[in-house]
Amino acid sequence: RASLRAHTIRGGRGGTSRADAVAVVRGVGQDAGGVPVPCAGDVHDRRVALTSGLPLAAAIALAAVADELGDDLVPFTGPGFRDTTRLADTSADLAEALLLANAGNVVAALGRLRGALDAIEGAVAERDASALRALLQRATAVRARLCQDIAARVS
């Protein structure tokens, strides 16, 4: 909020222009360490559901599954589990706002995740190494591309 207060929207007769509003949003994003990317609102909402809402929901689900086991998992948890569940520590107010404000897109993203999990489950259940290998290779390629794109954008 302090960052938002630092930005002012200027416009004639108490009004604001679209350019002024865009400048404020861009400034807030940059102040938060982001790189603003202009896009349509519906595109933004789908992307945020995938990149913020879905990881949050997955972390919540993984933590819930771990809790259902009721066992002492600590000796078995490593960095992967800790990294994957980190977002489950998001404040309830922020998590609710993030998930519910964009509910339609989050639900759609959860459906896509469910489909991907079903594909992994099927490959594992059938002990289909080639199908599993294809899923792993796709995931590795996507992750490499994302990391490369992020590095290029930041530099």
Number of strand elements: 0
The proportion of strand residues reads under 5%
Radius of gyration: 20 Å
* First-residue to last-residue Cα separation: 27 Å
Strand and helix order: HHHHHHH
Helical run tally: 7
Average of pLDDT: 87
Q: Assign an overall shape.
A: globular
Low-confidence runs:
1-13
Task: Tell me what the structure shows.
The protein has 155 residues and is an all-alpha fold. Helix content is 73%, strand content 0%. It is built from seven helices and no strands. It has helices spanning 2-6, 18-31, 41-69, 79-85, 92-100, 103-125, 129-154. Helix 3 packs across helix 6. The radius of gyration is 20 Å and the shape is globular. The chain starts with a helix and ends with a helix. 4% of the residues are buried. Mean pLDDT is 87; it is low at 1-13.
Quick summary:
By secondary structure, this protein is mainly alpha-helical.
SSE layout and pairings?
Blueprint: H1 2-6, H2 18-31, H3 41-69, H4 79-85, H5 92-100, H6 103-125, H7 129-154
Helix pairs in contact: 3-6, 6-7
Descriptors:
7 helices, disordered N terminus, mainly alpha, 155 residues
